[in-house]
Amino acid sequence: MRMKYSFYSNTFKFVFAASVCLCFGQSAAAAGTPQLCSKVLLEAARTPDDEARDLVSQLRRQQDQRSLKTDGPLVDFRDSDIMVVFGSGAIESISKNGFLNAHQTKESSWAGSDDFDPDKTSIKSYLRARKPVEKAMAGKNITDEALLPKYGVVQFRNPELLKFLEKEGLMSGDTESGNGLDIYGEVGAILKDDVKSRTTFTFYDSLSYMGKMNAAERREAVKTSVFTFTDQTTKIDFNQIGFSGRYIEAQIWGTLSLSDVKYFVVNNPKTPWNTQEYADKIIAVTVARLRPYNIPIFLAKPADTKLSDAFPSLQDSEEHLAHLGYWIPDKPLGK
Questions:
Q1: Which residue in 6, 222, 228, 252 has its CB near the most CB atoms, within 10 A?
Q2: Cα-flanking dihedrals φ and ψ of residue 280, to 5°?
Q3: Which of these ranges, 23-27, 46-50, 59-63, 217-221, has the smallest mean pLDDT?
Q4: 40 touches 17 (CB < 8 A)
Q5: What's the CA gap between 22 and 301, in Å, rounded?
Q6: H helices, E strands: number in the chain
Q7: Could you say which DSSP state residue 232 is in?
């Protein structure tokens, strides 16, 4: 319903602005103010996605001025995917309303956590904790809930980066607890590259890292550790930016729908403690739910796959995909 409301609201503003310009066109032109009329029309026609791109562009300019002195690895930000994880039971709702954030759904897996909801007041405490963090990242207070971010993960495909993380002991995941992302659902929606123009990311969970900071501390954290996708290869010091190793969080600003999805990757629950029969049943139900939407579907490599098997250049690595929360497409399952 929120998406429909936003559409009608923007349409009304556009028609109203156009009517004003038509009614007063002659006098406005005579007064030399047609530019003002055009400005009103342009502002009325702007969408949350336009606002999102402006917001990320501002952060990108800050990032370009940032000086990280580091001997860390070179990271090509273009060599990556953005993935949003969800439960397949929500696919029908997503097809109608798009991917919504917690402010819109009034639901979150964080609600009720000891860290941000000690009084167990559920979603209200969670949203109160989220708001100042998102405000700090945006650099302003945002009232349009559709503009506020939807959260996902960034998956860099560069094996050399993974090799560096393993060597430096920066991977903190636990193979026995799965890959850390399956608590959010069993499907990863891999987004199209043009979504990157309105996406930021942090090398940590933004709420965990900035949620208990004061306003001044959050502003400083944003300056040093909120990144955007650039056309440059950048050196990264993972120790300096507080990389936890579990996953890289993406913040997608503006609207998000199935039209932004490149393909689905279905988590493979096959692990030493899950039988193949159990895994096959979960996969079959998930794929059946996704097929009607005509988007390519892939099965991910199992979470306990060694990095050396997933990336041959990582010779003799004993670490597993679970340590980075990586869902790497393995077998195509059609559409």
A1: 252
A2: -60, -40
A3: 23-27
A4: yes
A5: 59
A6: 12, 11
A7: S
